[in-house]
Design a protein that fits this description.
The protein is α+β, with helices and mostly antiparallel strands. It has three helices and five strands. The chain has helices spanning 2-11, 19-44, 46-69, and strands spanning 85-94, 97-105, 110-115, 125-127, 130-132. A three-stranded antiparallel beta sheet has the order 1-2-3, covered by helices on one side. Strands 4-5 form a two-stranded antiparallel ribbon. β1 and β2 (97-105) form a beta hairpin. The termini are far apart.
């Protein structure tokens, strides 16, 4: 008879979580959420900067490919010293529209760039050969 009571009692033991267990789980989830939210801010602007620099690289690569395909020694096919700005302008029209114009030297290297729109690139500026966030003043 005592055996029957023991077997029936086994099924009725703890059913659910205590308040302390639930509070611990909520606290852990809160800490994880706080860490994720604080770290996600650094990734938000980096994609835009990378996209801008990729576009600049594509423009330079296209200019060099054009020179190679047409057997040109310089981009404007005149005698120009490497690094001298020739005033040749290039741009890349993509799905986002025209983003910038680029000034290339005789070797196809970008010497300057001007932003056309800021809807995608925000406050990026072209310095030292690539797009970057403007320096804090």
């Amino acid at each position: 008879m005592d055996l029957k009571k023991l077997i029936k009692g086994i099924g009725r033991s703890e059913k659910g979580f205590t308040l302390i267990e639930l509070l611990v789980v909520v606290a852990i989830l809160g800490v994880i959420a706080a860490v994720v939210i604080l770290n996600i801010g650094s990734f938000i602007g980096s994609g835009t900067e990378e996209a801008a620099n990729t576009e600049a690289h594509q423009v330079s690569t296209a200019a060099i490919a054009y020179m190679t395909a047409n057997s040109l020694s310089t981009l404007d096919d005149t005698t120009v010293e490497p690094g001298q700005t020739t005033g040749v302008e290039a741009y890349l029209l993509n799905a986002n529209g025209l983003q910038a114009t680029y000034t290339l030297d005789g070797t196809g290297k970008i010497t300057a760039a001007d932003k056309i729109t800021d809807s995608k690139w925000g406050s990026l500026v072209f310095t030292t050969g690539e797009w970057a966030e403007p320096a804090a003043t």
